[in-house]
Amino acid sequence: MMRMEPLTIGGRTVIGIEVKLPKTTLLAVAADRGYIMCGALDIGLLNEQLSDRKIIAGRATGVRTLEQLLAAPLESVTLEAEAYGITPGMTGNEAIKRMAEIAEPTQ
Fold it and tell me: Is 106 a domain residue?
């Protein structure tokens, strides 16, 4: 089963996503320019093999609900997230607020 839920964080709407799988649940909260996710997110892959994509993302472990994902400290973040001041130890809520505030790059 999959559930998508609009969430208001810092006055902006972001999307919470919950995917029930056998023996686990995938959790993510996405803003326009980045996302946080449960322990299934592979930060190393994003930093190494997909570095050209400049993905702004963070990972929290040991969470089972969207609420826990937002409250938990991030265990790791991508290099691109660090460039925007998003750091390990920051709560998911704080990180998503920052991600929602990041402006689109000018062309």
Answer: no
